[in-house]
Write a structure and sequence with these properties.
There is one protein chain. The chain has helices at residues 3-27, 36-51, 55-62, 66-74, 78-83, 94-98, 102-110, 112-120, 130-135, and strands at 87-92, 123-125, 141-143, 149-155, 158-161, 164-173, 176-181. The protein is globular, with a radius of gyration of 26 Å. With 190 residues, it is of the alpha+beta class. A seven-stranded mixed beta sheet has the order 2-1-7-6-5-4-3.
Length: 190
């Protein structure tokens, strides 16, 4: 084989090896055209974020927030909790809503301004973890999206906010965090 043919064969081998390496990276999601090595990691993170569920989707998937989701929809807050954020939601479970007498719950569901205020009293701006809430001093107050203040209390391992005990903390969502609570916080109207 002549020198020229050896160079062509060597070049072809290099191309085949390089091409198969890139193809392997594409299959693994590590290579994105035009981004180089630095963009590979960003592309993976972006894809993972798309797959993560928002607050509404997480609550729906949990299955124990049906009444909360109906109320959020009736108050016109669904879009806010799907897209914006980050938010921390102290979400009352179906059991929490069941503690409200039916006539009172029906009246609340019909009174849209009051319903919206009650639901927003369960929402805090930002992503607040259980550890951050626990780090607050007993009696500390947290400002809600309803512009009300709720008192944080701790008794042993129990953590409560506005009189509602956190029963399942720290459900992560793409636009915030959900802490399940055992009581609907019925704030007084201004």
């Amino acid at each position: 084989m002549g020198a020229w043919k050896r160079m062509v064969v060597a070049a072809m081998g290099t191309l085949l090896i390089s091409g198969s390496a890139l193809a392997g990276e594409e299959k693994q999601g590590k290579y994105q055209e035009g981004t180089g090595g630095a963009g590979m990691e960003k592309a993976e993170k972006k894809q993972a974020m798309k797959q993560e569920q928002n607050i509404i989707e997480k609550a729906r998937a949990a299955g124990n927030f049906k009444t909360f989701l109906m109320a959020v929809d009736a108050a016109g807050l669904t879009e806010m909790l799907e897209e914006k954020g980050p938010f921390t939601v102290f979400a009352p479970t179906d059991e929490a809503f069941a503690k409200i007498p039916k006539a009172q719950l029906d009246a609340l569901m019909e009174d849209k301004p009051r319903l919206k205020a009650v639901l927003l009293s369960h929402v805090v701006a930002g992503r607040v973890s259980e550890a951050q809430v626990r780090a607050l001093k007993p009696g500390a107050e947290v400002r809600t999206a309803a512009d009300t203040e709720l008192t944080v209390e701790k008794k042993g391992e129990k953590l409560s906010i506005g009189g509602a005990t956190v029963v399942q903390p720290g459900v992560q969502a793409s636009n915030g965090i959900i802490h399940s609570v055992d009581k609907v916080i019925l704030i007084p109207m201004k």
